[in-house]
Write a structure and sequence with these properties.
The complex is a heterodimer of chains A (about 350) and B (about 325).
Chain A: H1 2-12, H2 14-32, H3 37-56, H4 59-63, H5 72-89, H6 93-121, H7 126-147, E1 167-169, E2 184-186, E3 190-192, H8 194-210, H9 214-224, H10 226-231, H11 236-262, E4 264-266, H12 275-284, H13 294-319, H14 324-347
Antiparallel strand pairs in A: 1-4, 2-3
Chain B: E1 4-9, E2 12-18, H1 24-32, H2 41-45, E3 53-62, E4 69-72, E5 75-77, E6 81-85, H3 92-99, E7 105-111, E8 114-115, H4 121-126, E9 129-132, H5 136-140, H6 147-159, E10 163-166, E11 171-174, H7 176-189, H8 206-219, E12 224-228, H9 236-253, E13 256-260, H10 264-270, E14 273-278, E15 281-287, H11 292-299, H12 308-316
Parallel strand pairs in B: 6-13, 6-14, 9-12, 12-13
Antiparallel strand pairs in B: 1-2, 3-4, 3-5, 3-7, 7-8, 10-11, 14-15
Helix pairs in contact in B: 6-7, 6-8
Classes of the chains: A mainly alpha (about 350), B alpha/beta (about 325).
């Protein structure tokens, strides 16, 4: 028994056990301070489904040695373009969602290819360059959103008659396009969107499958030791580009899944900080800068979103004031700080 | 310096002795655990037969930092064990690296009479050549991955071994079962000390890492095998095993082996012919049985006496 416990601790790693226990204690404390357990659990699970694919978008680049995908906003922008174009065309329901995806993915492939070419020129500094690629692409799109010739009245500014709004509702188009399928509702507060989870599982399966193919194996080897891969006749730059494209596409698909559950498309500065929670989640899940697995994604997303949901509501109730937003910011950034210091430890 | 010494092997104490009462030869035999035989002189007695010229280089140059090759033209015959020796930094290591496309190179290389594309590792591998690098930890191994990946990766990527073709060849799925099976075979054949096929290469000792590198090359089933400094930084027992394995593979499969080593004695014990490289040029080729002094002279560049004018004239050409 003791050995089994030790083996478990070694496998999971202390950080995850400590955070897991902290999360568990929050769930236990919740009913005592008057927070509904079923509502918060449901909240956590919905957020896991929403953010999961964005976290998954970290995996290909980590595996190929390109580091954490701080350039995630680039993929998100491809997704946003797909979303607004689909709303402009005006098809409703799941077909509209599918259309958004069909538009977003080729865009993400093109963006990802360019992004990959850039990263191949800055080997060793990928993460810093990626951060700036993300930031500058957001800034560029801030102008583009104003200038692009979209005309759908649900999306453009009311007074000027041109330019897209900062927040666009997808209600009436493809709100809950995935989440509405097969969802489970227990009581008044507990709600589990199985449809969204199935899609998340499908994406995980596809990425898992990719890393079991010949190309996926080559990508992993490039991340592990590029010199070895080159000596085995692998085109290192090509493999890195493939991984960047894959990460960008997953970012685009991820944001669409996020939006259909959230109900809004957030333009302009919306994608700006989207990379950080995803980075924090995967590091929290036990990934290092050059190794990540599907388990890291699922565990990390659950722990991160769990803490993010539970801490503000529980602490709020204890302190009897409304400072949930402040606490949320402290918790999420503290989490990133923690996760990034962990990264340094792994490097050594 | 010590009064007493203990010999450890495979995690066990093999022998404890007072330093005064023993000698180097005895210690070495404890370390190896087998009697160090007269390095297989008996086997060498029988006449060795070679086939056609399998590898020919013509004015090969390689730009490898610290190991520049300037102008090397050699011919190696099928089934031969060919040695490349010389002092450190004279370019002997650069030759195999250049032919395998790892460093920028020029000139011409022919395999079985056909000229191959240089500067492209993939085409060299496709021609049936394999390489065990001298830079074990840098080029030779995926340190963070398991032994299984290390051994099978090259063969998987170049020859599509251990690959299942699904959906009519559209999907190339890694056959993990075949990978594990092949790895287990090599672990057994080469006596790799490890906890299993999944153990990470970084956790192995130098000798066992070298065996993994050899297994990686054997998995490709090469016609020409380049082995660079195979015994550098490994213990006596592993050294013998590595050399014996090379000799066995050469005998059993007729693989042509081109071995680079800084240790002349090692080359002379295993090779048929040894070429000495000096200042990036071929200084001379001698049968392995030649006396050591002759090799020594070649290393110092004394035999091929060319005037500086001749050399510069050649450069102009």
């Amino acid at each position: 028994m003791k050995e089994k416990l030790q083996a478990f601790i070694e496998n999971a790693g202390w950080p995850r056990i400590i955070i897991g226990l902290f999360l568990l204690s929050l769930f236990i404390a919740a009913p005592m301070v008057g927070v509904r357990l079923d509502a918060s659990l449901s909240d956590t699970l919905v957020r896991v489904g929403m953010n999961g694919i964005l976290v998954l978008a970290m995996v290909p680049m980590v595996q190929s040695g390109c580091g954490l995908n701080f350039g995630l906003p680039l993929g998100i922008i491809a997704g946003l373009l797909g979303a607004v174009t689909s709303i402009q065309i005006g098809i409703e329901g799941s077909i509209g969602f599918l259309l958004a995806m069909v538009i977003a993915v080729p865009l993400a492939v093109v963006f990802g290819w360019m992004y990959g070419q850039l990263l191949n020129r800055v080997k060793g500094d990928e993460m810093m360059i990626a951060t700036y690629v993300g930031f500058s692409s957001v800034a560029l799109m801030c102008m583009a959103w104003l200038l692009l010739p979209y005309t759908s009245p649900t999306m453009i500014w009311g007074y000027g008659g041109s330019g897209l709004r900062t927040t666009i509702s997808v209600e009436g188009f493809w709100f809950n396009a995935l989440s509405k399928h097969l969802n489970i509702r227990i009581g008044e507060f507990f709600y589990l969107p199985i449809g969204m989870y199935l899609f998340f599982a499908l994406m995980i399966f596809l990425v898992w499958g990719f890393f079991r193919t010949k190309t996926g194996t080559a990508v992993t080897a490039v991340g592990s030791n590029p010199e070895f891969a080159r000596a085995s006749g692998i085109n290192v730059d090509k493999m890195r580009t493939i991984s960047v494209i894959l990460s960008t596409v997953l970012g685009a698909v991820g944001i669409l899944v996020y939006e259909q559950s959230f109900g809004f498309v957030q333009l302009y500065m919306g994608p700006f900080y989207m990379a950080f929670p995803a980075v924090a989640a995967i590091l929290l899940g036990g990934a290092s800068v050059n190794k990540a697995s599907m388990v890291n994604v699922v565990v990390g997303t659950f722990l991160f979103q769990g803490i993010l949901t539970m801490t503000p509501s529980v602490i709020n109730s204890v302190m009897q004031t409304d400072m949930s937003e402040v606490i949320r910011i402290i918790v999420s950034n503290g989490m990133i700080l923690y996760a990034l210091t962990r990264k340094v430890m792994v490097k050594r | 310096m010590c009064d007493k010494l203990v010999v450890l092997r495979d995690g066990r104490v093999i022998q404890e002795a007072k330093t005064g009462e023993t000698n180097v030869r005895q210690i070495a035999s404890w370390m190896v655990g087998r009697q160090i035989s007269g390095v297989a002189d008996a086997a060498e007695e029988k006449e060795r037969k070679f086939g056609e010229v399998i590898l020919r280089t013509q004015n090969l140059w390689v730009d490898m930092p610290g190991e520049t090759v300037r102008d090397v033209s050699i011919e190696v015959r099928q089934g031969e064990i060919f040695g490349l020796g010389g002092l450190a930094g004279q370019g002997k290591v650069g030759i195999s690296n250049g032919i395998m496309g790892l460093y920028v190179s020029g000139g011409k290389v022919f395999v079985k009479g056909k000229e191959i594309k240089l500067n492209d590792p993939n085409s060299s591998l496709m021609e049936g050549m394999a390489f065990v690098s001298e830079d074990r930890r840098g080029v030779g191994l995926l340190l963070e991955e398991g032994i299984d990946w290390n051994i099978t990766f090259t063969a998987m990527q170049v020859q599509e071994k251990y690959i299942l073709h699904l959906l009519g060849g559209l999907l190339k799925w890694r056959d993990d079962k075949a990978v594990t099976k092949c790895t287990e075979e090599y672990i057994k054949a080469l006596e790799i000390r490890c906890t299993g096929p999944k153990q990470r290469a970084v956790e192995l000792s130098g000798g066992n890492q070298q065996k993994v590198c050899l297994a990686k090359a054997f998995a490709v089933a090469p016609e020409i095998l380049f082995v660079s400094e195979p015994t550098r930084g490994i213990d006596v027992g592993a050294k013998k095993l590595v050399l014996d394995t090379l000799r066995r593979v050469n005998e059993e499969t007729g693989t042509t082996i081109i071995m680079t080593s800084s240790e002349l004695e090692e080359l002379r014990s295993i090779c048929d012919r040894v070429a000495i490289i000096n200042e990036g040029r071929l200084s001379g080729i001698l049968p392995a049985k030649s006396p050591a002094e002759e090799f020594g002279l070649l290393m110092l560049g004394h035999v091929v006496e060319r005037s500086p004018d001749e050399i510069s004239a050649e450069r102009c050409r």
